[in-house]
Amino acid sequence: MAAEGEYESILCVKPDVNVYRIPPRASNRAYRAADWKLDAPDWSGRMRITAKGKVAYIKLEDKISGELFAQAPVKEYPGIAVETVSDSSRYFVLRIQDDNDHYTQHRGENQLTC
Predict the structure, then answer these.
(1) What is the value of pTM for the model shown?
(2) Which of 9, 47, 79, 105 gives 14 a disulfide partner, CB atoms 3.0 to 4.6 angstroms apart?
(3) Does a structural domain hold residue 2?
(4) Distance (Å, whole) CA 79 – CA 71
(5) Where does the NECAP PHear domain start and stop, copy by copy (predicted)?
(6) Nearest-angstrom CA–CA distance, 86 and 74
(7) Do the domain assignments include residue 59?
(8) What are the 10-residue block averages of pLDDT along the chain, 114 residues in total?
(9) What CATH number does residue 76 fall under?
(10) DSSP per residue over 7-40, as a string?
């Protein structure tokens, strides 16, 4: 992880992103955005990608208050934190990590291009 004295750099901000609840995988088949309820996002807000040391963080935040909804630390790419979907280049899956380093449910969102 990042050392105590390192500063955080903002790499990208997307003001409008959506998060969708992703159904569990029944097999090793890749995720598909067509399987999600794209007309009914479970959360909307902004996304900030930051870096501290050698770790990037994809942060999902409230548009107004900046309150953190979820974050995905990206220690390496490709890796387990960000996964593409098989039927779209606009959507992807994030592996969300809580403050205790536990990974929780995968989420999807759109408009990653920075």
Answers:
(1) 0.78
(2) 47
(3) no
(4) 15
(5) 7-101
(6) 21
(7) yes
(8) 77 92 79 85 93 93 94 85 85 76 50 44
(9) 2.30.29.30
(10) PEEEEEEEEEEEEEEPPPPSSSPPP-GGGS-TTS
Cβ-proximal residues to 81 (8 Å cutoff; 6+ apart), any chain: 58, 72, 73, 74, 75, 94, 95
List the domain range (segments joined by +) for residue 100.
Answer: 8-110
Both structure tokens of 111: 């408009």
For residue 100, the model assigns a pLDDT of 57
CA distances from 30 to 2, 33, 66 (A): 32, 10, 32
Q: What token pair was written down for 87?
A: 């039927």
Q: How many domains does the chain have?
A: 1
Tokens of 50: 């930051």
Query: Which pair of tokens denotes residue 85?
Result: 């979907």
- Which amino acid, residue 59? K
